[in-house]
Design brief:
The strands form three sheets. This protein has a nine-stranded mixed beta sheet, sandwiched between helices. It is globular and about 65 Å long. It starts with 10 loop residues before the first strand and ends with a helix. It is built from 17 helices and 20 strands. The protein is of the alpha/beta class. Helix 5 crosses helix 11, helix 9 crosses helix 10 and helix 16 crosses helix 17. The chain has three domains: about 90 residues, NAD(P)-binding Rossmann-like Domain (Rossmann fold); about 210 residues, UDP-N-acetylmuramoyl-L-alanine:D-glutamate ligase (3-Layer(aba) Sandwich); about 140 residues, Protein-Tyrosine Phosphatase, Chain A (Alpha-Beta Complex).
Length: about 450
């Protein structure tokens, strides 16, 4: 780990005691900073809060008192999910206190180079694919970030022999200033998280932060099929450009021709040999191939990974064939685009869809044509968005639509409405927080209920 002395004996405020907040607070304390952690929740029984108190970190819980920000505060490290409308953050920015996420600190301290992956959809799958492919390089990969372990935790033991393969959200990237990955990967930019960023332009600028500090010694792997990625990211980047595409032959990157995946005109494998279904996963595979190719990973190893990799947990995850039904858990599909792609991953199969969740104020009109195109024979709806999704399904003329209480009650209905040869698909198109702690919990409950029918 590189030395960082600029915050020694200075006040650092960590806003939000989540996974990243805990790791960042502990690290900054070890670097000699005077650390305060603030969280709106009661932390009196929180184990992380207790362990931080034991090493001298000051804990302020139960609210966000504005007096925490004063002229003595040198830095605020915020939880990525806390919006910039938070009064403490607004006051910090007004007083020119730097407001960053833990990604910024990890980037400053890491001896290992970063491969950063961002995009509206496909980040987790692509990150995991790159992690597996990098095992065929001269560097030992460590997969972290928005997936898995906090970056400020992993960089403490990472060396120059490692490569940190980091999934990065727009929330994380907006809080960076000097972050400098050696390879950045930008998959796509859709109309997501506008409640947080306000506009598509702000959202795209946050994504583009991944390449702002890159130079000609670095590489930008980008989706040349996406006009937004090209306009907002690639055209402004100083890094070497390594494109990937389904629409054109990118001889300096990754592409598909006559059903074969290529990297710089070297054939890797036939698309039909891939372990993951769906066109969206083909794009993820191309991105991973391009990133691994920058590090000289052999086409043989890339092919082996693409054949054997079966997907990230909760992202179009194959569960099992139960009573002749093929079960897929796509609980991580928390938006319309992700669910749309899942619906078209099973050509020739009839689908029973389980959907619904947190109401973020949007309609589901964009899902109507996708429901019409895909062979959806029945839909089971739950959660806050139940009525909105019901309206979309009626307009899409789905033959059978049922409202149920939750995922647990949806599964037996799905078996009753399906027959051998069908696909039962949990792909909610919504976040989980109205009924479940996380999309992971929602997906695990789905799998547990499915297993009762084995």
């Amino acid at each position: 780990m590189k030395p960082l002395t600029e915050y020694a004996n200075k006040k650092v405020l960590v806003l939000g005691l989540g996974k990243s907040g805990f790791a960042a607070a502990k690290l900054m304390k070890s670097l000699g900073a005077n650390v305060t952690v603030n969280d709106r929740n009661d932390l009196s029984t929180n184990e992380h809060a207790r362990s931080l108190k034991a090493i001298g970190v000051h804990i302020v819980d139960g609210g966000h008192p504005l007096e925490l920000i004063n002229s003595d505060v040198a830095l605020m490290i915020k939880n990525p999910g806390i919006p910039y409308t938070n009064p403490l953050i607004k006051k910090a920015l007004e007083q020119n206190v730097p407001v960053v996420t833990e990604v910024e600190i990890a980037g400053l301290l890491s001896d290992a180079p970063f491969i950063g992956i961002t995009g509206s959809n496909g980040k987790t799958t692509t990150t995991m694919l790159i992690g597996e492919m990098m095992k065929g390089s001269s560097l030992e990969p460590i997969v972290a970030g928005n997936i898995g372990t906090a970056l400020t935790a992993v960089i403490q033991t990472a060396t120059k022999k490692n490569a940190i393969v980091a999934e990065l959200s727009s929330f994380q990237l907006q809080g960076t200033r000097r972050f400098h990955p050696h390879v950045s990967v930008v998959l796509n930019i859709f109309d997501h998280h506008l409640d947080y960023h306000g506009t598509v332009e702000n959202y795209a600028r946050a994504k583009a932060q991944i390449t702002v500090n890159q130079t000609s010694e670095d590489a930008l792997v980008y989706n040349s099929d996406s006009e937004r990625v090209v306009n907002y990211v690639a055209e402004k980047s100083k890094a070497q450009k390594v494109p990937f595409s389904l629409a054109r032959k990118e001889t300096n990157g990754a592409y598909v021709s006559n059903g074969v995946i290529y990297f710089k005109d070297q054939p890797i494998l036939k698309v039909e040999e891939m372990g993951l279904p769906g066109e969206h996963n083909l794009l993820n595979a191309l991105a991973a191939v391009a990133a691994a190719g920058v590090y000289g990973v052999s086409v043989e190893h890339m092919a082996e990974v693409l054949r054997s990799f079966k997907g990230a947990r909760h992202r179009l995850e194959y569960v099992a064939v139960v009573q002749g039904r093929t079960i897929y858990n796509d609980s991580k599909a928390t938006n319309i685009i992700a669910t749309s792609k899942a619906l078209h991953a099973f050509p020739g199969k009839e689908i029973v869809l389980l959907a619904g969740g947190l109401d973020r104020g949007n309609t589901f009109d964009a899902l109507i044509p996708e429901l019409k195109k895909a062979p959806v024979k029945a839909v089971l709806l739950f959660g806050q968005t139940q009525k909105k999704l019901l309206d979309a399904c009626v307009k899409a003329q789905i033959p059978v639509i049922k409202e149920v209480e939750n995922v647990e009650s949806a599964v037996p209905e799905a078996f009753a409405l399906s027959q051998p040869g069908d696909v039962i698909l949990l792909s909610p198109a919504c976040a989980s927080w109205d009924q479940y702690k996380s999309f992971e919990q929602r997906g695990d409950i789905f799998i547990a209920e499915v297993n009762k029918f084995r």
